[in-house]
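Suppose a colleague, Dr. K., hands you the sequence of a protein chain of 467 amino acids and asks what its three-dimensional shape might be. Before reaching for any lab equipment, you can write down a predicted structure in C-alpha cell form. Begin with the sequence itself:
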Amino acid sequence: MQKNAMRGGAYSVVITAVVLAILVAVNVFFSALPASSTEYDISASKLYSVTSNTRSVVSALTEDVTIYWIVQAGEEDAVIEKLLDRYESLSDHITVEKRNPDVYPTFAEQYTDGTVYNNSLVVECGDRSRYISNTDIYLTDASLYSYSYSTSFDGEGAITSAIDYVTNPDQPVVYTLTGHGEEDLPATFADSLEKENITVEELSLLNTDEIPEDAACLIVYAPQSDISEAERILLEDYVAGGGKLLVMAGPVEDADLTNFYALLEPYGITAAEGIVVEGDREHYAFSTPAILMPDLADSDITTPLAEEGYYVILPLAVGLEMGENTTGATVTSLLTTSDAAFSKPDGYDMTSYEKEDGDLDGPFALAVDAAYSNGGELIWVSSSAYLDDMYNAYSSGANVNFTMNALSQLIGESEAMSIRAKSLNYNYLTISDSVSGLLQVLMIGVIPLAFLGAGITVVVRRRRLLK
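The predicted structure, expressed as C-alpha cells, is then:
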C-alpha cells in the first residue's frame, strides 16, 4: 500500500509538472505574439484599433520608421501604448523607442521649440521628422453654443499622417482662389488639410493667365462676388484639360454669381434661383426646412459615410437642376433633395417656409461630380455654410469628411482620406425633423400612457381576485 501510494504521488507530481510546463510554454508562445493577435478592442470608440487607411500606408513602407515615445517612467498613457503596439505589429519597418526626458533632457529640442509634454511622439525617417505633441493626440474643443468641452483621441490620425509625411517628400499642393471676397477655410477643415499633409497656397487669377503646374487641385470656397468672363474661360479650360476643381458656393446676399454658375452649363447643370427649402420632414433638421439632410448617392465619396450611418447637413443651399450634358464628362449627382423640395426665389428675403406661388419645384441636386476621361474633374457643392465648424459638429464631422473624401478623389490619394478622431465624450445624433416628432410623441405620450394602462389593468385584476 505504501508503494502504491508513493507511485500515485510520483505520478501526480509528474502530471502536475507536465501541465505546468505546457502552461508556461503556452504563455511564452502567446506573449511572443503581437498585441493585435492576442487583444481584442472592445472600447466603444475603438481607441486601440487602426483603420484600413493606416494599414494601406503602413503596408506600403519600404524605409525604416522610428517612433520615439517621449515619456517619464511610470507616466505611460495606456491608450497610446496599446496603439503604438498596433503600429509596431503591422510592419517590420516600424520601431518604437522610449525616450525618458529625465534621462535625455535635450532629446526633444532637436524636433521642437515648444513645451514638450509627457506622452508626446516624434516620428522619424532618415532626415525627415515630425513632432506630435500630446495636445495633438488628445484634442479638446470648447463649444461657444453649449458652454461645454468635448475631448477626442486622434492618435491614429496624427501618427499615420506623420508616417506618410516623413516617408513621402512629395506632398500635394492645393490652391485656394482669392479676389472675389472668398472666406477663409473653416478651422476644422483647414486642420484636416494639414493633417493630410496637403499644402495650401493662395491664388489670384487677376494677375496670372494660368494655374500653376504643381496644383493638385484648385479650391473655390464661399465666393461673395462673381468671377470675370476671362476667369470663367480659364477655369473651364483648366478642368477640360485635366485639372481638378472643387467649388463650394452657396447663395450670396445682394450679389449675382452668373459667371461662376456658367461653369456648370456645359454639363447640363443650371442653378435655380433662390434658396432650397425641403417639404419632406425626413430631409431637414432642427425643425428648419432650409437646413437640408440630402440623400447620399452611391459613390466613393459618399458610401463610407452612408455605411456608418452619417448624414451631411447643408444649410442655405442653391438647387442644381440636371439637364443635357454636352461634354465628354461623366456627370453624377452626389447629394440630392427629396421630390418635395422647392426653391424660394426670394432667397434671404423669404418670409415663409411654406410653398407659395412662384416657388420653383424640385427635386434638386446639391452636389455634383463631373469627371473627364483625361483626369479632369469638377466637384461642386451648392452650399458653403455647411463647412462652418458649428454645422460640422452637428453632423458629427460628416460635413468635413464628405469634403475630404471629395478632395482625396480629386488629388488621387485614396489613402489620404481623413481618419476620424475618436470621441471620448459623445457625437451628436443627427435625426430628421419627422423622426424627432415621432420620438416626442412616443416618449411624452405613447409610453407613459402604456405604463398607465398596464398599471390600471393590474389594479383591476387584483381587485377582482380579492372579491
